[in-house]
Amino acid sequence: MKKILLISFLMINIIFAQEHHGMNPDVENYRVYQMINDLKLTTEQSEQFFPMLRSHIMKMQNIEQKILELYKKVNNDNSIDKAEYRKIKDKLIDLENKKVSEKSQFLTDLESVLKPDQIAKYMFFDRKFRRNLRQHLKHRKR
Q: What is the DSSP string of 84-124?
C-alpha cells in the first residue's frame, strides 16, 4: 500500500511540476503532500482527483492568460473610446464568468470522486495552504 501511495505521489508531483513550472518544486511537492493529507485522499481518489485538478488548472490558466492579454491591451492603448471600453468591459465580464463557471463545474465533477467533506476542505485548501506557507516563511526569516 505504501509503495502504491509513493508511486501515486511521485506521479502527481510530475503532473504538477509540468503545470506550475514557475513555482518552487519543493513548495509544489509540499502542496501536493498537504493536499493528500488534508483531504485524506485514498490512492484511488488520488488517481482520479489529480488528473481532474490538472485539467481544471489548465482551463483556469487559459482564462487567466486571456485576462492578462486584455490587461496588456488596455495598458498599451491610451486612446480607448466608449465603444472599445464596452468591448473590453464585456470581454472581462465574460472571462470572469467563465472562471466562476469552470470552478463551479469542477466542484460538481468532484462529487463523483470525493466525499462532501473532502470537497468542502478542498474549496478552502489553497487559502489555508498559502496562509500557512506565509506564516512559515515569516517565522523562517526571523
A: HHHHHHHHHHHHHHHHHHHHHHHHHHHTTTS-HHHHHHHHH
Q: State pLDDT tens for residues 129-139.
A: 999 888 888 88
3-class SS at 71?
helix
Burial class (CB in 10 A: 0-12, 13-18, 19+), 21: exposed
Number of domains in the chain: 1
CA distance 78 to 75: 7
List the domain range (segments joined by +) for residue 102: 2-141
d(CA 55, CA 70): 23
What digits encode the pLDDT tens for the residues 1-10?
554 554 555 5
* Residue 100, all three cell numbers: 466562476
